[in-house]
Amino acid sequence: MRIGLADDDLTEVQLIRRLLDSVPGYSIAWVSQTEAETVERCLGDKPDLILLKLGMRALDAARTTRAIALQNPCPVLLLTDPQSARSDKVFEAMGQGALDATHIPALNEVGGISGGNELLRKIAVIARLIGKKESRVASTDRRAAGKSQAPPLVAVGASTGGPKALAHIFSRLPGNLGACFVVVQHVDTQFVKGLADWLDGQSPLKVAIAEEGEVPKPNRVILAGGEDHLVLAPDGGFHYTPEPQDYPYRPSVDSLFMSLRRHWQRQDVAVLLTGMGKDGAKGLKGLREAGWHTIVQDEETSTVYGMPKAALSCGAAVEVLPLSRIPEAIISRLRLEKK
User: Fold this and answer.
1) pLDDT tens-digit readout, 138-183
2) How far is residue 41's CA from residue 304's CA, in Å, rounded to a whole number?
3) What whole-number distance in Å separates Cα of residue 166 and Cα of residue 202?
4) Which of 95, 129, 163 is the last residue of a domain?
5) Which structural domain range is residue 246 located in?
6) Which of 130, 169, 204, 240 has a beta carbon 3.0–4.6 Å from 175's, enabling a disulfide?
7) Is 238:230 a contact under the CB 8 Å cutoff?
8) Sheet harboring 269-272: ordered strands across?
9) How many C-beta atoms lie closer than 10 Å to residue 96's C-beta?
């Protein structure tokens, strides 16, 4: 796993190099300190992954990520300073193609590396997504809601580029649509609350992290929060589960979609947006087979055409639409269901 590192702090560079050197098969391909140098390095010596520090003096993370995606696409993992990271900047860069974000490792008081294991875990997940061999490092009486009791449900899955796509959709939906939206977006746990708040500020609908046991409510968007999978249980509420443990996508879009097929008594709407990998394709196909109206984002407007392509390849899509047409398609379908 050859890794490019964009970081202008020498101490951080040395610490990250020490961390990566501890893992067999990991190595730093190059180090850059500016936006221009990072793009140039990627063009001349494309690594398997770029670690890109947020908040560098001579580098705009969103613009750099976009340039890399256009000129020589390469996975980007953002590194953030927990003391100064701004969630809006993280989501802006993710909207341009960054896969995820995690805190910059730091030297602790006993000479160890705080946050090192989390960074290595993120790298291992991305390695699996891009096909690299992973290096080893050290209430029950409720019934499912029926058609007469529950609001229409719109299930949405997204990964790379998802925050920007979600903002586009939710900013264009009316606040009185009457449906509940449940969203799985691949994003680090520490940024989920910021993502919910960011989306809430751009939508007439109320956006919040899904609470354990929460039941679907109209005119509300609930977002999977954390690394456990968000699923609908037989009691009609959403719950978090660690299973399946070995699934590389956490939280999993497939887990949500498949639970809806088993336990939701309506045939409503499911949407699969931009993202790397195949998460959501299998579950979306199951929903289509169960009578749901399934929508997949098209290639031209996807930041990464991995998840949508996988869904299209397996026959999961009823409609394939550009991002600009997805809000109206959701509205039209929900209005049709009311008739």
Assistant:
1) 432 333 344 446 899 999 999 999 999 999 999 999 999 999 999 9
2) 21
3) 10
4) 129
5) 153-338
6) 204
7) yes
8) 206-209, 220-223, 180-185, 153-158, 269-272, 293-297, 319-321
9) 23
Distances in whole angstroms, Cα of residue 317 to Cα of each of 273, 277, 307, 308:
12, 17, 12, 9
pLDDT tens string 109-132: 766 788 888 899 899 888 888 877
Residue range 182-228, pLDDT digits in tens: 999 998 888 999 999 999 999 999 999 999 999 999 999 999 998 89
CATH number for the domain including 69? 3.40.50.2300
Q: At what angle do helices 87-95 and 61-71 cross, to 10 degrees?
A: 10
Number of alpha helices (DSSP H) and beta strands (DSSP E) in the chain: 11, 16
Structurally, the chain folds into a number of domains equal to 2
Query: Can you spell out the DSSP letters for 232-297?
Result: E-TTSSEEEE--STT-SSSS-HHHHHHHHHHH--S--EEEE-SBSSSTTHHHHHHHHHTT-EEEEE
Which residue, chain included where needed, has tokens 């190595």? Answer: 27
Active site residues: 159, 186, 279
Residues 203 and 115 in one domain: no
Q: Is the pTM of this model over 0.85?
A: no
The SS3 assignment for 59 reads coil
**157 in the same domain as 42:** no
